[in-house]
Amino acid sequence: MAGAYEVTATRKRPQDFDKLVGQDFVVSTLENAIKEGRIAHAYLFSGPRGVGKTSSARLLAKALNCEKGPTPHPCGECDSCKAIAIGQDVDVIEIDGASNTSVNDIRAIKEEVMYPPQSSRYKIYIIDEVHMLSTSAFNALLKTIEEPPEYIIFIFATTELQKVPATIRSRCQQFRFHLISQEEIMKCLRSAAEDLGIEADEDALFWIARESTGSMRDAYTLFDQVAAFSGKHITLSGIREKLSIAGFGAISNIVEKTLQGKSEETLSAIAKLFEDGVSADQIVKDSAEFFRTLLLYSAGIRRPEILGAALSDIPENITSLLTREQIEAALKAFLDLYRDLRYSLSPRYEIELLFTRLSALPGLVSKEEIVRRMEELKKGVVSGSVVVKTAPLPSIPMEKKTPIAKADEKQREIADQQPINVSIAPSAPPAEAEEENEEEEANGDLTITPDVFPSIAEALRKMGKISSARYITSIDRIEKDDNGFFIFIISKPLAFNTLKNDEKSIEKATASALEEEVHIKLRFEEKEKDEEVFSEQMKALRAFFGGNLSHTKKKETKKEEEINHVTDNEPVRIDENDGLAPEPDEED
Ligand SMILES: [Zn+2]
How far is the CA of 189 from the centre of ligand 1 (A)? Predict the structure, then answer.
């Protein structure tokens, strides 16, 4: 975009109530009052900056002083309308409360109000940032607004309503202005771009709207800034490059790589951001925003203007992997880092370290959850209902088969050497189990294949089990045991934890999906992973989370240790490597 043009915020300043964006309630109330001739002598407009308070004050002045008024639709043609539009009307006096705070300024107003308007119906004072006035100035003002001459109207505007004395507030007709929705801001930006003959990508406008956090003025200012370097086409990549921001997509990409354990790719993606000139501050800020969005999303929020991202940008592969608790932990980590950044020797190292540590996030399990699982395990041991693992029965293969098949081999070896594999699942008491066995024989040929998962998920959703509905596809395979129980085998600790909580509901959901009575159990089985690498990450994570986390170490003593942890009331962390079967090569 070559050449100068009028600042968009000025150019798009509404000249009619119909053009005022996002303040429908204010507009309709004012319009009705004017139509019915109910004119107050003092108005108080409060609300965030840049949402149309001053514009509304000028519109109201126009509506009251238009030669064809008072009318909710000022003509815009008469001398009054024209003069007010450019802030030159002698009878509409705009005062900035921030720079006229003294009692003397107010005294001057007190004297002035004695003189009637020169050429208009009303003499109108628009006092912006009225909360900045001193107490004595307020007191002086109070006397004037208590008994104003017929021709005087005050319109006060403030961003901090609570700082306006109650004595003033109670004498004003109050209007609260709201933040403008992202959607409305985008609409205005689209129109602004159109006016200038500039093409603007939706995601770029979305970014501007999001950054301006509900302020139309901020949105226009940022738009001007972006338009100035964008030429005839505003794109998000152009914005990223010129304004050196990381952006939601870039952070999402890094987090995804981190969670996949691809630390090399993570680090080079971070390096790329630094090369592009994105500051450490900005990366941390964008990362915090990213996790905030995920947190809101995991809490069920779907409105893009609250999420701060388009729904299509939400990375399902990340949200389905992390619990709310884990997302919270990540958000807190970035907020902490943001706060500590200025004391850091090398902000870049801190960022690299933090992202590397995040790779252990999916395994972070709450203390409460561990205690619960250990309690169940203990109960199982006591009642003798722990599931004895035998060589797996023919399993129903799933799509992502390779690593599981490998794990199967491993399980077979393990089973030979150490036949007792403990399932955390509390089994039904023996008597009940027998009863159930009889029922089971009726549908001995029944199988469950992955293609019923959508129906199971649907049934779960109907029961309100949203998380389990989402995790149901995490089931790695399904086996059938000698008693006719379907064993749902899951290797992701998170998915297992979630599903385990809803075991009975899943049974019901499965039964309803198959239209057959079924009995199911969930079983956790580990997959392989490089334990040494993980341990390093674990150490880092533990250090990072303030030592508030301990890792159930490995090998034979694992179960014992876990129980010890519980007894010690220490939080424990379980990861894919922390499955209950030990590595065979570690057995002597
Ligand atoms: Zn007019």
Answer: 28
Phi/psi for 351 (5° steps) reads -65, -45
Cα–Cα distance, 62 to 124 (Å, whole number): 10
Q: Which residue has the higher pLDDT, 376 or 48?
A: 48
pLDDT at residue 562 is higher than 90:
no
By three-state DSSP, how is residue 42 classified? Answer: strand
71 CA → ligand 1 middle, Å? 9
Question: Do 110 and 186 lie in a common domain?
Answer: no
Euclidean distance between CA atoms 228 and 222, whole angstroms: 10
- Average pLDDT of span 216-220: 91
Q: Are residues 417 and 549 in the same domain?
A: yes
End residue of a domain, out of 328, 359, 390:
359
Q: Counting every residue, how long is the chain?
A: 588
Instruction: Report the DSSP pairing between strands 475-480 and 486-490.
Output: antiparallel
Statement: residue 486 has pLDDT above 70: yes
- Domain hosting 383: range is 364-588
Residues 556 and 494 in one domain: yes
**48 lies in some domain:** yes
Ligand 1 centroid–CA 92 distance in Å is 14
488 and 405 in a common domain: yes
Q: Which positions ≥6 away from 194 have C-beta within 8 Å?
A: none
> Is residue 266 one of the residues assigned to a domain?
yes
Find the CATH number of the domain harbouring 336: 1.20.272.10
Distance 75 CA to ligand 1 centre (A): 4
Residue 60: pLDDT band (50, 70, 90) is very high
Name the domain count of the chain: 4
| Rg of the chain (C-alpha set) | 33
* Nearest-5° Cα angle at 429, 423 to 431: 140
Q: What is the pTM of this model?
A: 0.54
Distance from C-alpha of 522 to C-alpha of 36, rounded to nearest angstrom: 70
Who's near 91: CB < 8 A, 6+ residues apart? 65, 80, 117, 118, 119, 120, 122, 123, 124
4, part of any domain = no
Window from 99-103, 322-326, 351-355, 453-457 with minimum mean pLDDT = 99-103
- Evaluate whether residue 160 is within a structural domain: yes
Tokens of 587: 């057995």
Which residue's entry shows tokens 């006092």?
Answer: 127
Q: By C-alpha distance, which of 112, 190, 106, 191 is closest to 152?
A: 112
491 contacts 527 by C-beta, under 8 angstroms:
yes
Q: Residue 66 C-alpha to ligand 1 middle, in angstroms? A: 4
Asked if 298 and 221 sit in the same domain, the reply is: no
Confidence of residue 155 (pLDDT cuts 50, 70, 90): very high
**Mean pLDDT computed over 135-147:** 83
* Ligand 1 ion local residues (Cβ < 5 A): 66, 74-75, 78, 81
| Per-residue model confidence as pLDDT tens digits over 313-353 | 888 888 888 888 889 999 999 999 999 888 888 899 999 99
Shared domain for 159 and 266, answered yes or no, is no
Domain at 199, CATH number: 1.10.8
Q: What is the whole-number distance in angstroms between the Cα of residue 78 and the centre of ligand 1? A: 4
